[in-house]
Design a protein that fits this description.
GMP Synthetase, Chain A, domain 3; 4 helices; 3 strands; globular
Length: 111
Amino acid sequence: MAEKFPEVEFVEYIVKNIVAHPEDVKVDRKVDEMGVLLTLDINPEDMGYIIGKRGNTARAIRTLLKIVGAKNNARVNLKINEPEGSQRAPRSTEATESTDVDTDVVDDLKI
């Protein structure tokens, strides 16, 4: 059995308990010079659950994931793959720029 990493287990646990199709949740982990990149694949019908209103759910998951990463001395980022056939409308760049939340405070967190 493949080794499970704390950040992968964390994302899987959170996402599987939010979505309607937990069996379709898949998290891939890649390490490069920038840190750890987790890529999340989900059922197209579950995209709204993960993004949340105005991106708040996705932002909260990313913030908590940075804390989990800090605890394990790793810089962790989450990419959410938009599945084929998802129902989300294309986002405008104006709206995303004004709602970004600065999570740099947790980057240097010592746990």
